[in-house]
Amino acid sequence: MVYVFLADGFEETEALAPVDILRRCGVDVKTVGVGGDSITGSHQITVVPDIADSQVTTDGLEAVVLPGGMPGTLNLEKSPIVKACVEYCVDNDLPVCAICAAPSILGHMGILKGKKATCFPGFEQELTGAVVCQDKLAVTDGKIVTGKGAGAAIEFGLAVAALLAGEEKSRKVREALQCR
């Protein structure tokens, strides 16, 4: 099970494009509403998540995806459930994926030390200990995938898919989506 956490103020494209790509690859994905049964994104698009954060369990957890956006990133970082799932993934060598401002959460948690990562411009200083790669739309370093921003959401989703479903499935989805 892959959890994509949604908190009020999330960047819609950064959440839903990876969900779409992962589901096309056959990955079991659940969107998780942090603090509510419906979550409104930063562009006033309201989404009804698959489950509430109160239903989250680490049983069968395979990866976590954190979309950015403001104040969505700040709301994710305040959530003890989000942090517990991120820590569980790190402790169990499972993928942790974050895009835009959300890699700052990983930086604040000390997860990016010595790892290559990218983020939305202006958040570089929040990636504590990371080797920042701002020339890339998406960066994979071991089990950590980071993305630059909304315009990188498909590339980020494909990188997450490659890690979770394999390069071949990710490549086929890339072709189906008409991505270069």
At the fold tier of CATH, the topology name is: Rossmann fold
The low-confidence parts are none
Question: What Rg is obtained from the alpha carbons, in whole angstroms?
Answer: 14 Å
Give the overall shape, derived from the CA principal axes.
Answer: globular
Separation of the first and last Cα atoms: 29 Å
Order of helices and strands: EHEEEEEHHEHEEEEHH
Count of runs of 4 or more consecutive helical residues: 6
| Helical residue percent band | 25-40%
Strand order of the largest sheet: 5-2-1-6-7-11-10
Class, according to the CATH hierarchy?
Alpha Beta
Estimate what percentage of residues fall within beta strands: 15-25%
Q: What would CATH call the architecture?
A: 3-Layer(aba) Sandwich
Arithmetic mean pLDDT:
97
